[in-house]
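Anyone up for a design puzzle?
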């Protein structure tokens, strides 16, 4: 190729880059003048206790499956499972006839610093299940626990073996040290980082703050994959500047990521020390409500969904549950995505809702 032709190509590439950057700047400017809406599937409040609330999604047809209660963790908002129309897990569940509920943990403040795993996994979930029974007329429900919410659900199912109709989990850590079994070197950095912290340092840090700040947990997750974070706000963003749907999804995701609630202090200690550092859940020494949680006591059917490329909760950390259950129907569902992709990616939308509906259909 001649020097002149190569020069022309360079000029063309620069012109294209300039055009995309101009377009991106215009789109970002436009987005700053309006609110991006997330979690728009209609629902109604059915129960509240202080900051904690339970809502029931409005059915679009007569519900014939469930009831099922979606329980997220304290790290991120429950809006993740209803990020946007057409790419909403709850929208698809409701459309399939699942009587779907969702828990909102609210905005913990310093006044909530002494709430621990017992409060969330035992007390609140017990009250929530009672509220679901009153509302639905069904004596037993399914809990669908997501990430840390899955650990709340596991604890409740083990402590109250006959209270649940079924237990669904997604991207839930069970064996917090099983990341050593994952051959992918980019997985498990959160586990390694947390295990490297002195438990006394964690206690002092949380005691000084009262709660674990949402800004801190958000920054930690952003820095687990720094190259990916940089690319997301540069090259990747340029690529989607002219794709209206992709750009809207990006804005909704950023809104969810920016809304990190503070994590109640005592529950944070249970999470970081009891589970991440000391791995007590699979050892049978994690105490909730004054009793050790024995995963082998779970008596209801279980479906366990995990992300094959999940770098936050590596697949072995979730799949370890199989080894600790006894004589219960157990199903695993692998989704070829990362942690958040299990709920929002187009591929996951073709896998997760149908798998849950099929599993729910088989429950007694």
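Challenge accepted. My sequence:
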């Amino acid at each position: 190729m001649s020097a002149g032709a190569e020069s022309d190509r360079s000029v063309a590439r620069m012109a294209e880059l300039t055009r995309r950057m101009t377009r991106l700047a215009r789109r970002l400017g436009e987005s700053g003048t309006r609110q991006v809406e997330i979690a728009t599937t209609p629902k109604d409040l059915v129960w509240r206790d202080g900051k904690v609330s339970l809502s029931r999604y409005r059915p679009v047809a007569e519900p014939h499956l469930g009831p099922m209660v979606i329980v997220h963790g304290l790290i991120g908002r429950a809006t993740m499972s209803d990020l946007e129309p057409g790419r909403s897990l709850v929208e698809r569940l409701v459309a399939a006839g699942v009587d779907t509920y969702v828990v909102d943990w609210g905005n913990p403040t310093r006044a909530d610093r002494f709430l621990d795993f017992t409060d969330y996994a035992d007390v609140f979930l017990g009250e929530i299940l009672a509220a679901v029974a009153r509302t639905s007329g069904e004596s037993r429900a399914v809990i669908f626990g997501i990430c840390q919410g899955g650990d709340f659900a596991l604890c409740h199912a083990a402590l109250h073996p006959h209270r649940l109709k079924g237990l669904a989990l997604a991207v839930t850590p069970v064996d917090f040290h099983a990341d050593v079994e994952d051959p992918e070197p980019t997985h498990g950095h959160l586990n390694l980082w947390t295990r490297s912290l002195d438990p006394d340092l964690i206690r002092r840090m949380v005691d000084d703050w009262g709660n674990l700040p949402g800004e801190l947990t958000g920054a930690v997750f952003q820095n687990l994959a720094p190259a990916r974070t940089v690319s997301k706000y540069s090259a990747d963003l340029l690529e989607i500047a002219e794709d209206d749907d992709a750009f809207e999804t990006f804005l909704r995701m950023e809104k969810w990521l920016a809304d990190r609630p503070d994590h109640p202090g005592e529950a944070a200690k249970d999470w970081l020390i009891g589970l991440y550092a000391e791995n007590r859940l699979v050892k049978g020494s994690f105490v909730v409500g004054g009793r050790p949680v024995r995963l082998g006591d779970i008596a209801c059917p279980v479906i366990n969904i995990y992300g094959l490329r999940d770098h936050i909760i590596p697949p072995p950390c979730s799949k370890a549950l199989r080894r600790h259950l006894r004589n219960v129907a157990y199903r695993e569902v692998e989704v070829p995505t990362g942690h958040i992709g299990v709920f929002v990616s187009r591929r996951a939308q073709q896998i997760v809702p149908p798998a849950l509906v099929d599993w729910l259909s088989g429950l007694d």
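A detail worth pointing out: The chain has one domain: 38-361.
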